[in-house]
């Protein structure tokens, strides 16, 4: 299993290094340390903990749909011309940018401060890894 350092786990979990160390002491996360190497935790355990502790706003639409990637957020910016618009949402810690027609922006009544749901049909998702990883 891939291992990551405490400081990196803290970044992924959105907490301090000290919180990760407390979770290790409480048995929430398991750690290992070999020789002079820094303490590490299991990356998969960190991902599971992040998922379990995720606080997502409720989807107010109450609409069923096949897309599984739904992010509730606040519109933070709109750049529009006569035909197209770029709409930016802040969905928790994630910035989502959508390109759509200006007509759609008007029909949806979107403006900065509006609550909106980004629905992503993930048929084309690019996955990258940090440099030096195989």
What does this 3D model show about the protein?
With 134 residues, the chain is an alpha+beta fold. It contains 4 helices and 7 strands, in the order βααββαβββαβ. β2 (31-32) and β3 form a beta hairpin.
Notable characteristics:
elongated; four-stranded antiparallel β-sheet; 134 residues
Quick overview of this protein structure:
This protein has 134 residues and is of the alpha+beta class.
SSE diagram, text form:
Layout: E1 3-5, H1 6-13, H2 17-26, E2 31-32, E3 40-42, H3 43-53, E4 69-80, E5 84-91, E6 94-101, H4 102-108, E7 115-120
Antiparallel strand pairs: 1-3, 2-3, 4-5, 4-7, 5-6
Helix pairs in contact: 1-2
Number of strands: 7
Rounded Rg = 20 Å
Q: Name the shape in a single word.
A: elongated
What topology, given as strand order, has the largest sheet? 6-5-4-7
- The topology string of helices and strands comes to EHHEEHEEEHE
- Alpha carbon gap, first and last residue: 14 Å
Secondary structure: helix percent: 25-40%
Number of helices, counting only DSSP H or I runs of 4 residues or more? 4
Portion in beta strands: 25-35%
Average pLDDT taken over every residue: 84
Spans where pLDDT lies below 50 across 5 or more residues: none
Briefly note the structural class of the backbone: alpha+beta
The profile of the biggest β sheet is:
4 strands, antiparallel
